[in-house]
Each structure stands twice: as structure tokens, then as C-alpha cells.
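C-alpha cells as discussed.
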């Protein structure tokens, strides 16, 4: 793939690279905050490990890794002057994300996380394979003259995931569910994505936009977001976001991920 693209050289290897774009990234007063100026020997990977170690559950850690990866991709796109981001998520992957994010309290963000269109970060998002099931993509990749299987992300079998295991995440459970449903009832998978695509993202006027300081997605207009303790207004001080506006503290889903109940 890199040989087929003019600028195919990767510019980021892991979610830890997000610290290159946001050296002072922190998830709250209780989290460890380090800047390059304060500790030049503190590696990005170690900072990521320490950040994840302070989260309350495996689901929280998986959620935060996904958020950091998304922030990194957006930062790379804007930093290189790209106006669009193309993802290779299948119908199956989008269905998993739809139910996972809803279960984690981020249902309001579904239009930005699963649909084509303009993102809150002023970048166009395109899910190029949103109409193809994972099993269809896998089958096609083995039939081409030039094998495409090396481009497929390897996924570990999830059939042994236990709902009672502390190491099992919501993503694991949803992956296990759709892994079985896709084989015999593919229409169910497609219906989840078609239903979520009917959800419209609310308008986000730049001068009034309030962003969650973790996922950087807009909060509902007229609210301070829902938090772990249930308050409507944020108990935290506003933190300036990348655009210089005063951002709301946390959306409900991110509060559930990073705050201990």
C-alpha cells in the first residue's frame, strides 16, 4: 500500500504519539501531568502507561485508547493540511461501535463516530467500506490477484470473552455478539448501521461550541454535560481547548471512563 501511494510513509506508530501534539495532555487534577520542559526523559509510552494505569476499568482503558487514537489522527490530518480522513471501518465495525458507545454513555456522539460528513474538527470524515460486512471484506481480500490480506487488521477471536471477567471490555462483548450475528443474520448488522445513520449531528456553531476536554466532541447546547455523579453542570474548572474557546469539562461518557465511581 505504501508503494502505491505517493505519501504512504506512516507518521505515527501508536496512541502515545498524541503527546507530540499535546504535551500537557491530562485527564483531570488527579491525573499525572508532565510536560517536556518538566521532564525530558519521561517517554511518551511511559506517560501513556501511567495515564491508563489510573483509569478504573478495562473498558475505561480501551475507551481512552480509542479517544487518543482519534485525536492523533485528527491532529495528523490538520497538521499536514488534509481536509478529509478516510477510514476503512466495515459495517460490522460500525455496528459494534454504535452499541459500544451507546452503552458507555456516548450515544449523543454516534453521528460523529459512525457517519460520513463534517466532523467537529473541521475535517471531512469518510467511511469508505461502511456498506461491506467484515466477512465480505475478508473474503474479497483473498480473491484478488494482488493479495490484500496483509492490509487487514488481525482480530483475536472473541468467542471466549466472559461478561464476568474484569479484563473484558464493552468492545469485547459487542465484538463477540456481532461476530456470531454476522455469520447467520447479517441483516441485523446492517440495520444497526442504517438506523444510526439516520441520526443527525446537532449544529455546532464555532463561537458557542463547548467541547469535552477528553474526546473533544461537542456537548449539547445549553448544558454542561452529564457527569459521573449526575450533576448537570461541570464541577471542574473550564480548560481552554485547541481553538482557544472555553471548553466544558467532561461529557457524560468520558466522565464515566476516567472518574472513579
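Sequence:
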Amino acid at each position: 500500500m505504501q508503494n502505491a501511494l505517493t505519501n504512504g510513509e506512516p507518521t505515527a506508530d501508536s496512541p502515545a504519539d498524541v503527546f507530540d501534539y499535546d504535551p500537557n495532555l491530562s485527564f483531570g487534577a488527579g491525573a499525572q501531568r508532565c510536560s517536556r520542559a518538566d521532564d525530558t526523559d519521561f517517554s511518551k509510552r511511559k506517560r501513556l502507561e501511567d495515564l491508563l494505569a489510573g483509569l478504573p476499568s478495562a473498558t475505561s482503558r480501551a475507551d481512552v485508547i480509542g479517544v487518543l487514537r482519534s485525536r492523533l489522527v485528527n491532529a495528523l490530518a490538520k497538521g499536514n493540511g488534509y481536509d478529509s480522513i478516510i477510514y476503512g471501518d466495515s459495517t460490522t465495525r460500525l455496528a459494534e461501535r454504535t452499541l459500544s458507545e451507546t452503552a458507555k454513555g456516548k450515544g449523543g456522539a454516534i453521528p460523529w463516530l459512525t457517519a460520513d460528513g463534517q466532523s467537529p474538527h473541521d475535517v471531512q470524515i469518510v467511511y469508505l467500506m461502511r456498506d461491506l460486512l467484515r466477512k465480505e471484506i475478508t473474503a474479497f481480500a483473498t480473491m484478488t490477484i494482488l493479495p490484500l490480506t496483509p492490509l487487514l487488521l488481525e482480530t483475536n477471536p472473541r468467542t471466549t470473552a466472559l461478561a464476568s471477567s474484569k479484563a473484558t471490555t464493552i468492545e469485547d462483548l459487542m465484538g463477540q455478539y456481532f461476530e456470531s450475528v454476522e455469520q447467520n443474520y447479517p441483516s441485523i448488522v446492517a440495520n444497526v448501521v442504517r438506523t444510526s445513520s439516520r441520526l443527525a449531528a446537532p449544529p455546532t456553531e464555532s463561537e458557542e461550541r463547548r467541547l469535552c476536554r477528553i474526546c473533544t466532541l461537542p456537548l449539547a447546547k445549553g448544558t454542561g454535560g452529564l457527569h459521573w455523579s449526575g450533576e448537570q453542570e461541570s464541577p471542574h474548572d473550564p480548560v481552554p481547548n485547541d481553538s482557544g474557546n472555553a471548553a466544558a469539562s467532561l461529557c457524560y461518557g468520558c466522565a464515566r471512563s476516567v472518574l472513579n465511581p
